[in-house]
Amino acid sequence: MLKVGFIGHSLGVHEKRFLRGFDSLGIPAIFYSFSELLESPNLLRHHYELGKFNILMGGPLTHYEQLTKALQDVPFIAISYAYDVLYTAKDNAEVQRGIRKLLKNADGVLVDCDAVKTAIKEMAGDQVKVHSMVWGLEKCSSNHKLRAELKSLLLQEKERGSKIVVCVRNFTAVHGCEVVLRAFHLALAKNPKMHLVLTGAGELSEQMYSLAEEFDIMHKVSFIGNIEEPLLVPLLECCDVYMSSSLVDGTSISLLQALEAGLPVILSAVGGNVEWVNRITGGYLFDCGDVNGAAEQLLLCSESNDCYRYDRRVVMSEYADWSENMRKFVQFCDDLKLSKKSFK
C-alpha cells in the first residue's frame, strides 16, 4: 500500500489539501517541514525504517537543496508550485541549475498546467516523467457566511446598479495587485457603476491604500483584509467579475472557485491563465502588467451583458475534480513506487 511522506515549507492551504486528498483515498500521509528536517537530519531515514512512508514528494522546487538531500533511494516526486519555475527561476541561472539537478535526480514531477510542464522539459529534458494535474476543487458543503456588514454593502452596491469586481490575491509584487487597482480607476472614469473588492494583505498594503486615496476612489473600493478559504465561495456568489493581474500563475484555487461560481474572469496572460481562458466562455486576457489593457478588458466585460453566471460544470468536471485528479495522481505514484526499494 502507498504511504506518503510529504515535504514542504509549511503546512499551508495546498499542503493540507494534498493530505486530505490522500486521506480520502485511505492512504496514510505524513508532513515534514524543511525546518524539521534541518533540525533532525536522520528523521526521514528513521521514519522509513519504521514503515511510515514508501514514497516521498515535496516542493516548491526553489528549495532544491533540501529536496535533493531528501531523495536518498526512495521514489521521489518533485512538486512544482508554478511560481518556482515560471517566476523565481526565470532569470536566475543559479536557481535554474539547482532545480535542474533536482529534476534529474527525481523520479517524477507534478505540475498544474502546460506552461509549467513546458518549462520543466526545457530545464531537464524529456527524460523526466511529468504528471500534469490541475490542483482542483474539493467537493464539500459549506455553511460559512460573509460578515453581515460586508454582504449588506455589496447588496447595496448591486441595488445601485453597480457591478462588483473582486480580486482575491495578496498585496505583493508577484501578485501585481496594483495593476488591478490602477485599471479599475481608469475604467471607473468611463463606467462609474462598478465597485471593487480587494481581499488579502502584504508588503504593498500601505501603498494600495495610499493609491486608492490618491485616486479619490475609497468610496468605490472595499479593502476587506485576509479572508479564510471557506468564505471565498459566499464572497464570489455576491460578486459579478473576478480579476487577477498576477505576474505568474499555474492554476490558482481562487480562479477555479470563480470559474465554479460562473463568473466572467479577467486575467493576466500568464501560465495556466491562458489555458483556462481557452477552455471556457467568459474569459478575458490582458498582457501582464498592462494597466490600460486590463482597464479595456474590464470595461468590455462590465459594459456588456457578460456579467452573468456561466454554467461550466462540464469543463470543471473534466479538469478540476480534485477527487478524480488525486486518484490519477495516486496511480502515478504507485507506478513510480515500484522503481526503487530502500534507502542506501
Automatic annotation (TrEMBL):
The organism's lineage is:
Bacteria, Pseudomonadati, Verrucomicrobiota, Verrucomicrobiia, Verrucomicrobiales
Q: Per the database record, which ranges form the Glycosyl transferase family domain?
A: 158-319
- By its UniProt entry, which Gene3D superfamilies does this protein fall under? Glycogen Phosphorylase B
The Gene Ontology terms for molecular function here are: glycosyltransferase activity
Q: What is this protein called?
A: Glycosyltransferase family 4 protein
Where is the signal peptide, in residue numbers? none
Q: Which CDD domains match?
A: GT4_PimA-like
